[in-house]
Every structure is written in structure tokens, then in C-alpha cells.
Automatic annotation (TrEMBL):
Function (record text): Essential component of the vacuolar proton pump (V-ATPase), a multimeric enzyme that catalyzes the translocation of protons across the membranes. Required for assembly and activity of the V-ATPase.
Protein name as catalogued: V-type proton ATPase subunit a
Pfam families associated with the record: V_ATPase_I
Transmembrane helix found in the keyword field: yes
Organism this protein belongs to: Flemingia macrophylla
Record key words, sorted: Coiled coil, Hydrogen ion transport, Ion transport, Membrane, Transmembrane, Transmembrane helix, Transport
Gene Ontology CC annotations of this record: membrane
Residue ranges that the Swiss-Prot or TrEMBL entry lists as coiled coil: 101-128
UniProt family annotation: Belongs to the V-ATPase 116 kDa subunit family.
């Protein structure tokens, strides 16, 4: 359907209708299939259909190749994880890599084996190093226990002997702490020989108190425990985490106590290390451990250097390898969607492509056959089908964000009128009506220009969600800012402050004493104003701001302007439905949808818009609320002082009659006409001749084929009834919905005025630098946080709603599906 552009491979971009699509069939020789799919992926203009939907992934032809590509992708993810841990970032390279996928598979397997061995060896060495570090700490701290205890025991021995020689009567105590510090030594005198065993190690500091308590209870107090704090956290050999630990030495008597202590140490994760009693052996062990630590440190450093070099080598080619593996996997995934013909020598493919891409696809097929040294070229043919084609709009970086706004509501049906053409202008304009302030607009403009100027750098970076969303809509923000500056000039507001930009005010103070002062200093609330010049040439006269009539005047202006804009946009939506009906040759929708809808909407709210314009032009004092209400309640009454032009009463009666007639006009005829068309179509199809052999390639689909479906008149009538009621009620509610333009514009203006007067001006009045700086900071944060962030988001969402609900529901079905061509540039999203 629609005109097909001719005379070039790429016709001019047309956003109003989606690209004409065609269902094509490719018959590709096996030997050139891989290269053909690769070239079509580079072209990105063909959406393949899955011809093997009834088969599981494991039953398809290229399942083995996909499994191999998955294994290669796993290795690459392993490399990326190792590089991330080592702080090595992959280097982006634009030079193409010339490597066979089989060679790459072997190379990746070898690198994985080497890297795995290096990691295992490194972990073993690091664990040994951590154990030696702990061992050295045990030797140092426990050695201090034994050295101090032995010194004290020798002192006690000498004191005991001196007392024996002097003949003093010394009572031997039952328990002496010093005895515990002389393991396996025999004390002189009548003391009993005591032999104690001991264990030394490290225990986590957070568990040390519980560890001591459990030891005491398990052995019934028959142990002696000494602990010393390790100043710096140590790396645990088992977990690899840095943990604060204490060195402990447990003295015990008997094997039974020893077995209990060993179990408790295992339960608390306490690492035990061998320890000698003799001070000489302790010093020798410390020297040996220090030597081993130095050797291990050298070995670990050399291993880390070798591993870093290997990871840098991987990082230099990682992006190229990753792209090649992803490309290979997507090619085989696409080949699995193709079906084998009966000879097992060709693959048959079907898919959607734009009509303009026919020559490009054929060139890619010929090039693939030539590069593959295939003796047979691939066959390209167009299939005739009733299936609804996908929707494809060619967009650029400017229009893509606007198209995304429409697609978020629903993808356009094939060749349906696209609202994006008008949304490019109407969306930022309606936003600006609610956000009208040229000071705030300049701030938005600067933000948009920042993203636009740095778009090349930012597009290649990984951004967070909010920044990425803002960057994607940078051109929407640009137009929103420009339109906000324009409406700000109309409202004459710069951070709520008016300026005489386009000339002097048309009004002056009525009292001569204040006539020549600045407009902002007029005491308009008590003195009043008088018009002395021609009307202010553009926008709102600055004298209105601050006057006692400001709020009534601006309210009336913005409310009436909102109704005019709303009725205009709704009329545009209905006119778009006419172009849709004309394009699809649907005369029923023209006569029984478009015409009665236009009559109904304009008989009521089009007439209201006319009254608003006439009142503005004539300066009449007529009450438009009274006119519109009594147009329904008392249509035959005289208008009196509310009459705006001659013949207004008769015009209202005609419009009221047309509005009432248009409702059954929309409701009744269409279902009967559709039923008659269905019966005529079925009568013609009852005697359809047999298909010729030339039409054997016709593809049937249930997607858009209603030829043999039963026509349910009741369902059609109910649907039309719902549609009619929805339009009639929606005409009222949608018009009222456009009053949000007035409400949000008023809220934005008042908030801006409050921040200016109650923060900035108030701080200025104190004549204090500190208060002024604080006031300025509060004003900036309030302006940015509330007016430039929250108000921007609020106005954006309301403008979005006006387009999605009030505008698009007049003509936009949005029940299509997007064209997703096979493309290597989309591999990241697919992955």
C-alpha cells in the first residue's frame, strides 16, 4: 500500500508513513550460507523469520556451533572477570582482526588453561605466604610468653634456694602460677614433677573471648591460656580476608584435654602452628621462616608480573575477540532459523525487508557467492502475503528520541499515520506553555547544549540510568528549552521578573507623583494605571506583573489559550484519522467517523473557541460560561448582553442540532454497512477460481486474514457503541484536560515569584553580606531543585499525557510491531 519511492537505493526519509515492506524468500547454497548471513548482518535491512519454530534448540542444524560459541563466550567472560579483578581495562581497537574462528577457539582454550594454572599456583603460593606470616607472628608473640615466663621461673628458683640455705620455713603453695610457665622442667626441693603440653596459634579477635570461655568449660579449668594482640590485621590463609587476630598459647595436661582443645580450635577457625620450647630453636625457626617469606615474596611478585603481562595481552585484543565470537554466535543462531530444502544442499530463508533495500540485499547475495567461490548464486524472490508487515521508520539522532516517545505508547500499525511528525513541534511547545520562563529556558538550553557538544564522548561511555536517559533525550530538551524561552518572552518572565524588552509599557501610573518611576516601583494596588501608549508589541505588558489585576488577567488569558490549543490539537487528531481512512481506502470511516466527529467537536468546543477569539477582538464583556451553559439549558432564550455578534442565537440552535445528529450518525450506520460488506465479500469468495501455479508462493496468515471468520454483528455494534460514548464523553473531558496547561503555568509562575520575592529580595533587604550569600544559595538550590528538576519533570509528564491520551486517541491505533533487522550492531542488546 502507498506509493513506493523509486529512483535510488535510499529514498528520502519519510516519517509520516512507515517504509513499504515486502516479504522475501532467499534460497542460499550451503557453501555460501555463512558468508551470506554475515553480509546481511552488516547490511542490517532484513528481519529473518524463524522457519524452525517447531524444533527445540538442540534439534537444529547448527546447535553444535552455537554450543562452541557459547563456550568461547564463557572463556571471554572469565578473562573479563580476571581483568576486572586485576584492574586491567580492555583496549578498544578499530583495526579489524584477521583470525579464523577455529584458531581463536584453540587459542582461547590455551590461554584459559594457562591463566587457570597461574591462578591456582598463585593461590597456593599466597596461601603458603599467609601461613608463614601467621607462623612468624606466633613465633614472635609466643616466644615472648616463654621468655618472660622462664625468666620469672628462674628468679623464683633462685629465691627458693636462698631461702632453703638461710633455714627459713617456707610453706610450699598448693598452686603457683610460675609452675605453669615451666613445662617439662623439674623444680628443685620437695616439689612434685609436673609435665605440661601446649598448643600455639592464632584465633580471630572477635571470637577470642568465647574461645577462652569454651576452653575453660570444656576442660573444667584445667588449662592455662595466654593471648597477645596482633597490631595489624592479617590475611587468613583459608578465606583470604583481612582479619584482626590474637596469638594464643594453651597449656594443658593429658591427651584427653589435648583432643578437646584441638576440636575447639577447629570449630573456631583457629590456625595452629608447631612451636619449640627452647629459645635457641625458636630463634632458628624465626630465621628460617623469614628466609622462606622472602623467597615466596619474590616468587609471588614474579608470578603476578607474568599474569599481568598475560592479562594486558588479552586486553589488547579482547574487544575484537568478543565481537568476533558474538558475531559468529549470531550468524549461527540466524542460520538455525533457516530451513533445509529436500536436497540438503540449500538453505531457505524468509524475512521482511524494506522495498528500497532490494538492490542492496541482492548485491550482498552476489558478493557472498563470489567471495565463497560458490558456483550457484543465491535466489531472491518476493512473496505475496496477507500478513501484517512490521513497522519501520528511518530516524536520525534528532528524531529518534521523539519516535521513542510515541513507541512507548504503542508501535504504529503498518503505514499508519505517524504522530511523531507533529510531536516534534507540539510536544516541546505544550511543555513550554506550562514552563514559560525565559530564564529557566536558558538554564535548560545550557544543559542540552552540554550534552550535544559532548555527545561523541558521552556516547562511547557507560552512563548511569538517569544520565543515559537525559542524554538520549538531549534534542527533546533542546527544543523544550527553545520553546520555553519563546513562551517566556510571551509571558514576559525572567525568573518571574518582567522586563521591557520590546519597548516601553503601554500603561503609566494614574498619579503624577509616580508616573516617571520604574514600573516595578509603582504602587499599582492603591493608585491604579492608565493606558497612554500603543499596546505592548509582543507578549504580556510588564506592568501587569505586580498589579492588582495580575492574577485575574493572567488566569483568564492562560485558561482561554489552553482551550484554544486543546481544541486545535484535537481537531488535528481527527484530521489525521481522515488521512488514515483515505490512505487505507476506508470510505466508511470517512463518512461515519471523521465527519460526525468533526461536527460534534466543533459544534460545541469549536464554537467556544470562536467565542473566545471574538471576545478578544471586540473587547466584549460577555460571560462565555453563561453562553455555553444556557446553550444547552435554554437554547431558545435571548442572549441579551451576552450576544457577541448578530445571528448568534440561530447559529447556536443549528450547532446544537448538528451535535445531536452527529451522535447517531457515528453509532448506527457503520455496523450495518460493515455487515453488508462482509456478506458481499463472502458471496464473492464462494465462487473464487482455483489458484494458478504462478500463485503457489502465496503465503497465508491468520494475522490479518478475516475472510473465513464469522461476523458477529452484536460485537461490532457494542464496539461501535463504546467508541461513540467514549468520543462524546472524551470530547468534554479531553477539553477540560487541556486546562492543565493553565494550571501548571500558573503554578510555575507563582513558585518562581515566591522564590524570588520571599528568598532573594528578602535576603537583599537585610543589607548583610552573609544573609545575602545564604539567600542566594537557597534561591539557587530552590530554583534548580524545584523549578528546573521537579517542574521540568512534571511539565514533561503532563505534555506526554496530552499527546498519548487527548491527541493520539483520535486516530492512532498503535497495535503494530517493530521492524527488528538482523544486525551485528545490536548484539549487545540481544546478549
Amino acid at each position: 500500500m502507498g506509493e513506493v519511492a523509486r529512483g535510488g537505493c535510499c529514498p528520502p526519509m519519510d516519517l509520516f508513513r512507515s517504509e513499504p515492506m515486502q516479504l522475501v524468500q532467499l534460497i542460499i547454497p550451503i557453501e555460501s550460507a555463512h558468508r551470506t548471513v554475515s553480509y546481511l548482518g552488516d547490511l542490517a535491512l532484513l528481519q529473518f523469520k524463524d522457519l524452525n519454530a517447531d524444533k527445540s534448540p538442540f534439534q537444529r542444524t547448527y546447535a553444535t556451533q552455537i554450543k562452541r560459541c557459547g563456550e568461547m563466550a564463557r572463556r571471554l567472560r572469565f578473562f573479563k572477570e580476571q581483568m576486572s579483578k586485576a584492574g586491567v581495562s580492555p583496549k578498544y581497537s578499530t583495526t579489524p582482526i584477521d583470525v579464523n574462528i577455529d584458531d581463536l577457539d584453540v587459542k582461547l582454550a590455551e590461554i584459559e588453561t594457562e591463566l587457570t594454572e597461574m591462578n591456582a599456583n598463585g593461590e597456593k603460593l599466597q596461601r603458603s605466604y599467609n601461613e608463614l606470616v601467621e607462623y612468624k607472628l606466633v613465633l614472635q608473640k609466643a616466644g615472648e610468653f616463654f621468655h618472660s615466663a622462664q625468666s620469672r621461673a628462674l628468679e623464683q628458683q633462685r629465691e627458693y634456694e636462698s631461702r632453703q640455705l638461710s633455714g627459713e620455713s617456707v610453706e610450699t603453695p598448693l598452686l603457683q602460677d610460675q609452675v605453669d610457665f615451666l613445662p617439662a622442667h623439674e623444680l628443685s626441693g620437695d616439689s612434685k614433677q609436673v609435665k605440661l603440653g601446649f598448643l600455639a596459634g592464632l584465633v580471630p579477635r572477635e571470637k577470642s573471648m568465647v574461645f577462652e570461655r569454651i576452653l575453660f568449660r570444656a576442660t573444667r579449668g584445667n588449662v592455662f591460656l595466654r593471648q597477645a594482640t596482633v597490631e595489624n590485621p592479617v590475611i587468613d590463609p583459608v578465606s583470604g580476608d583481612k582479619i584482626e587476630k590474637n596469638v594464643f598459647v594453651v597449656f594443658y595436661a593429658g591427651e584427653k584435654a589435648k583432643s578437646k582443645i584441638l576440636k575447639i580450635c577447629d570449630a573456631f577457625g583457629a590456625n595452629r602452628y608447631p612451636f619449640a620450647e627452647e629459645l635457641g630453636k625458636q630463634a632458628q625457626m624465626i630465621r628460617e621462616v623469614s628466609g622462606k617469606l622472602a623467597e615466596l615474596k619474590t616468587t609471588i611478585d614474579a608470578g603476578l608480573l607474568h599474569r599481568e603481562n598475560l592479562l594486558n595481552t588479552i586486553g589488547a585484543k579482547f574487544e575484537q575477540w568478543d565481537f568476533l565470537v558474538r558475531k559468529e554466535k549470531s550468524i549461527h543462531h540466524t542460520l538455525n532459523m533457516l530451513s533445509l530444502d529436500v536436497t540438503k544442499k540449500c538453505l531457505v530463508a524468509e524475512g521482511w525487508s524494506p522495498v528500497f533495500a532490494t538492490k542492496q540485499i541482492q548485491d550482498a547475495l552476489h558478493r557472498a557467492a563470489f567471495d565463497s567461490n560458490s558456483q550457484v548464486n543465491a535466489i531472491f524472490q518476493v512473496l505475496h502475503t496477507r500478513e501484517l508487515p512490521p513497522t519501520y521508520f528511518r530516524t536520525n539522532k534528532f528524531t529518534s528520541s521523539f519516535q521513542g516517545i510515541i513507541d512507548s505508547y504503542g508501535v504504529a500499525k503498518y503505514q499508519e499515520a505517524n504522530p511523531t511528525v507533529y510531536t516534534v513541534v507540539t510536544f516541546p511547545f505544550l511543555f513550554a506553555v506550562m514552563f514559560g520562563d525565559w530564564g529557566h529556558g536558558i538554564c535548560l538550553l545550557l544543559a542540552a547544549l552540554y550534552f550535544i557538544i559532548r555527545e561523541k564522548k558521552l556516547s562511547s561511555q557507560k552512563l548511569d540510568d538517569i544520565t543515559e536517559m537525559t542524554f538520549g533525550g538531549r534534542y527533546v530538551i533542546l527544543l523544550m528549552a527553545l520553546f520555553s524561552i519563546y513562551t517566556g518572552f510571551i509571558y514576559n518572565e525572567f525568573f518571574s521578573v518582567p522586563f521591557e524588552i520590546f519597548g516601553p509599557s503601554a500603561y503609566e501610573c494614574r498619579d503624577l507623583s509616580c508616573r516617571y518611576t520604574k514600573p516595578l516601583d509603582w504602587d499599582a494596588t492603591t493608585v491604579g494605571l492608565i493606558k497612554v501608549r500603543d499596546t505592548y508589541p509582543f507578549g504580556v505588558d510588564p506592568v501587569w506583573h505586580g498589579s492588582r489585576s495580575e492574577l485575574p488577567f493572567l488566569n483568564s488569558l492562560k485558561m482561554k489559550m489552553s482551550i484554544l490549543l486543546g481544541v486545535a490539537q484535537m481537531n488535528l487528531g481527527i484530521i489525521m484519522s481522515y488521512f488514515n481512512a483515505k490512505f487505507f481506502r476506508n470510505c466508511v470511516n470517512v463518512w461515519f467517523q471523521f465527519i460526525p466527529q468533526m461536527i460534534f467537536l466543533n459544534s460545541l468546543f469549536g464554537y467556544l473557541s470562536l467565542l473566545i477569539i471574538v471576545k478578544w477582538c471586540t473587547g466584549s464583556q460577555a460571560d462565555l460560561y453563561h453562553i455555553l451553559i444556557y446553550m444547552f439549558l435554554s437554547p431558545t432564550d435571548e442572549l441579551g448582553e451576552n450576544q457577541l455578534f448578530p445571528g448568534q442565537k440561530n447559529l447556536q440552535l443549528v450547532l446544537l442540532l448538528l451535535a445531536f445528529v452527529s451522535v447517531p450518525w457515528m453509532l448506527i450506520p457503520k455496523p450495518f454497512i460493515l455487515k453488508k460488506q462482509h456478506e458481499a465479500r463472502h458471496g464473492a469468495e464462494s465462487y473464487t477460481p482455483l489458484e494458478s501455479t504462478d500463485e503457489s508462493l502465496l503465503v497465508e496468515s491468520n494475522h490479518d486474514s478475516h475472510g473465513h471468520e464469522e461476523f458477529e454483528f452484536s460485537e461490532v455494534f457494542v464496539h461501535q457503541l463504546i467508541h461513540t460514548i467514549e468520543f462524546v464523553l472524551g470530547a468534554v473531558s479531553n477539553t477540560a484536560s487541556y486546562l492543565r496547561l493553565w494550571a501548571l503555568s500558573l503554578a510555575h509562575s507563582e513558585l518562581s515569584s515566591v522564590f524570588y520575592e520571599k528568598v532573594l529580595i528578602l535576603a537583599w533587604g537585610y543589607n548583610n553580606v552573609i544573609i545575602l550569600i545564604v539567600g542566594l544559595i537557597v534561591f539557587i538550590f530552590a530554583t534548580v531543585g524545584v523549578l528546573l528538576v521537579m517542574e521540568t519533570l512534571s511539565a514533561f509528564l503532563h505534555a506526554l499525557r496530552l499527546h498519548w491520551v487527548e491527541f493520539q486517541n483520535k486516530f492512532y491505533e498503535g497495535d503494530g510491531y517493530k521492524f527488528h533487522p538482523f544486525s551485528f550492531s545490536l548484539q549487545d542488546d540481544e546478549e
